Automatic annotation (TrEMBL):
Recorded family membership: Belongs to the bacterial solute-binding protein 7 family.
Organism: Denitratisoma oestradiolicum
Gene Ontology biological process terms in this record: C4-dicarboxylate transport; transmembrane transport
Gene3D superfamilies xref list: Bacterial extracellular solute-binding protein, family 7
UniProt entry keywords in alphabetical sequence: Signal, Transport
Domain of life (superkingdom): Bacteria
Gene: dctP
UniProt xrefs under SUPFAM superfamilies: Periplasmic binding protein-like II
Protein name: C4-dicarboxylate-binding periplasmic protein DctP
Signal peptide: none
Length: 333
């Protein structure tokens, strides 16, 4: 009788082990933007490719639009292991202690995607991602959204037009300095709260790539959108380091390959998604779209160039010079 019990016990353990071996590895991927943005589409694309490449051994659960966590909460949730993957905007890493990432917030540092990608896809980008290891985070890739435009309920054509306005920013010392250089008062606010703040007049305006501006319906509560291309908004795709290091090596390799595919996809669609969103804003008739003349753009650049010098010590002088060398940026222009 005892032998039967022992055999039955072994059978139960073997069954439990087999069942657990068949359970997929869950990756909760949380983000704060809409599904139909470049980041939203790229997250869904990663889910599809990751599940295909791992043949179902991994299941990716994507939670868009701050469903799980808001801006300020998601990084802590990742470090605690409550979610496994995020794609926060690069401004989010300053408050974490990785101030170097705020270099991407510097106004007019990149004149287009080609110069930007020489940084994000080269040695500088890789060295920045490695800096996250000490925070319990593994950096996997950079994803584009696009170049930012200014919006408000008054036309913004000259730096003087910003005087006295309250403008929403992400938590970034560089963005704070940028708005102050224009004469505006910066207001740090979670992305999910921006629409209501614009609607109720808590803030007067904000900056966004057009895809975010349109998908968050900001065109319903902002009368003017200035095509300034003054700054870049991108994301770093990150994962909880303990979780990532604990994956079976073959699964980790398959997920790395899936991330490379998703990154190519994300960066290929970013520019076209923003153009499509701009056309949608134009067709809505609710927001007047303003273009800057060459002289007006020079006035913006002149007003904002001081931010580079003022924030040089924060982002790191050597890093800033390395980026400027890579992009061909000349602060004396």
């Amino acid at each position: 009788m005892k032998l039967q019990h022992i055999v039955a016990g072994f059978a139960l353990v073997a069954f439990a082990l087999a069942a657990s071996a068949q359970q997929p590895i869950i990756i909760k991927f949380s983000h704060v933007v809409a599904v139909d943005t470049p980041k939203g589409k790229a997250a869904d694309y990663f889910k599809k490719v990751a599940e295909e490449k791992t043949k179902g051994r991994v299941k990716v659960e994507v939670y868009p639009n701050s469903q799980l966590y808001k801006d300020k909460e998601e990084m802590e949730a990742l470090q605690l292991g409550s979610v496994q993957m995020l794609a926060p905007s690069l401004a989010k890493f300053g408050p974490l202690g990785a101030k170097e990432f705020e270099a991407f917030d510097l106004p007019y540092l990149f004149d287009g995607y080609a110069s930007l990608h020489r940084v994000t896809e080269g040695p500088i980008g890789q060295s920045l991602l490695k800096k996250l290891d000490s925070k319990g985070i593994t950096g996997l890739a950079f994803w584009d959204n696009g170049f930012k435009q200014m919006s408000a309920n008054k036309p913004l054509k000259q730096p003087a037009d910003f005087r006295g306005l309250k403008l929403r920013i992400q938590s970034s010392k560089v963005l704070d300095a940028q708005m102050r250089a224009l004469g505006a008062t910066p207001q740090v606010m979670a992305f999910s709260e921006v629409y209501q703040a614009l609607q109720t007049g808590v803030v007067d305006g904000t900056e966004n790539p057009v895809s975010n501006f349109y998908t968050q319906k900001m065109h319903e509560v902002q009368k003017y959108l200035t095509l300034s291309d003054h700054g870049y908004l991108g994301y770093a795709v990150i994962v909880n380091k303990k979780f990532w290091d604990g994956l079976p090596p073959d699964v980790r390799g398959q997920l790395e390959a899936a991330m490379k595919d998703a990154t190519r996809y994300a960066n290929a669609i970013a520019a076209t998604e923003n153009l499509a969103a701009l056309e949608a804003v134009r067709k809505s008739g609710k927001t007047q779209i303003l273009a800057l003349s060459p002289d007006e753009k020079k006035a913006w650049q002149k007003a904002l160039i001081k931010v580079h010098k003022d924030l040089e010590s924060r982002v790191g002088k050597d890093l800033l010079q390395a980026i400027q060398k890579e992009t061909g940026f000349n602060p004396a222009k």
